[in-house]
Amino acid sequence: MSFVTLEQKGPVGIITMNRPDALNALNEQVLRDLDAVLDQVEEREDILVAIVTGAGRSFVAGADIGQMSTLTSVEAKKFGAYGNGVFLKLETLTKPTIAAVNGFALGGGCELSMACDIRLASEKAKFGQPEVGLGITPGFGGTQRLARIVGISNAMELILTARTIGAAEAKELGLVSHVYPPDELMDKALELANAIASNAQVAVRQSKAAIRRGLQTDIYTGAAYESEAFGLCFATEDQKDAMRAFVNKEKLTSFKNR
């Protein structure tokens, strides 16, 4: 049995963390299953956008403390490096990703959501990096992504106090974009995913790549990435079709994605 499942609804792939009896806690096998599913999403041309969510009442409650409690320093470093590698693969997928956070997103769960491009939350969602209360640091990118998303001061406070916050505060900090009633979350995530999927996918993916690459460098290098992406789009059929339709005051109903 895989602890991570992939379901497709039209152009949208739904990745579900599926270990509900353990609140979807991340152990090595869960990470390996997620790694394999991400490869499937990348390879399948009919999946244009991916949603990441959790089965049951949790998104991901964190890494598996039972497994981690007996690790040596060397083993822990290896485990952290592997988890970071999987989350970097998620972050750098060519296809846009949306986290639909339906419950607990603590520790590794918060880090999983931050590796996605857009985060939506249920009103019942809880976020936090509680690791210092367990005598460790965040291990799957929390010290790096949280500061980039909510700013240094807010990240320092959340990580150093190990405080858990609700969905409303997460939205106020900019950790999530929108908060919805629990029974509306997946519908809203699918609505957003389909809106992204309806646009020209070469342009969508180049835009994502330019944003992601630009975050890792200075504004001058980032602007060069953008110019490269901008120019590449002018070699696509979608650019020619869309601009021709615009000039002729016609409505383009679909893209060829090439």
UniProtKB/TrEMBL annotation:
Keywords: Lyase. Gene3D superfamilies: 2-enoyl-CoA Hydratase, Chain A, domain 1 (3.90.226.10), Lyase 2-enoyl-coa Hydratase, Chain A, domain 2 (1.10.12.10). One of its GO terms (biological process) is fatty acid beta-oxidation. Pathway: Lipid metabolism; butanoate metabolism. The keyword Plastid does not apply. It holds the Pfam family ECH_1. SUPFAM superfamilies: ClpP/crotonase (SSF52096). The keyword Lyase applies. It comes from the Bacteria. Its EC number is 4.2.1.150. It catalyses: a short-chain (3S)-3-hydroxyacyl-CoA = a short-chain (2E)-enoyl-CoA + H2O. PROSITE patterns: ENOYL_COA_HYDRATASE. One of its GO terms (molecular function) is 3-hydroxyacyl-CoA dehydratase activity. Transmembrane segments: none annotated. Belongs to the enoyl-CoA hydratase/isomerase family. PANTHER family: ENOYL-COA HYDRATASE, MITOCHONDRIAL (PTHR11941:SF54), ENOYL-COA HYDRATASE-RELATED (PTHR11941). Homotetramer. This is short-chain-enoyl-CoA hydratase. It comes from Flintibacter hominis. The lineage of its organism: Bacteria, Bacillati, Bacillota, Clostridia, Eubacteriales.
